[in-house]
Amino acid sequence: MTTSKKDDVDLSKIKPQPYESFEEAERRREEEATEVHEPLTERQKEIVREQSSINPITQTVSDAMKEVNKVLEIDRKFEGFIEEDKK
After folding, report:
1. N or C: at which end does the chain have fewer Cβ atoms within 10 angstroms?
2. pTM for the whole thing?
3. CA gap 75, 87 in Å, rounded
């Protein structure tokens, strides 16, 4: 006993899909991937943090600490050169 689903499908409701060649799709993806967007404004950053449940104060402190750590790492990098100069 087979049931045919052909009777259930209303072909008049099916919309034809536009043809897009592989090259066109690849070109469109390439353009989207290389689009340059303006940096987020402070308000947009706040919205992103709110939507991702990031505490803005914690994030700001974390960002500041990252900047401080980068500076300290750079300073430490040159300590060896300074000690070599003293010898």
Report:
1. N
2. 0.27
3. 19
- 56 has pLDDT over 70: no
Please report where in the chains the tokens 């308000």 appear, as a residue: 43
Max Cα-Cα span within the chain: 95
Q: Is residue 15 part of a domain?
A: no
C-alpha distances (whole Å) from 61 to each of 4, 46, 65 are 64, 14, 6
Using CA atoms, how far residue 3 sits from 7, 8, 14, 30, in Å, is 10, 11, 22, 45
pLDDT higher than 60, residue 87? no
Say if residues 75 and 85 touch (Cβ distance below 8 Å): no
**Residue 13 falls inside a structural domain:** no
The total number of structural domains in the chain stands at 1
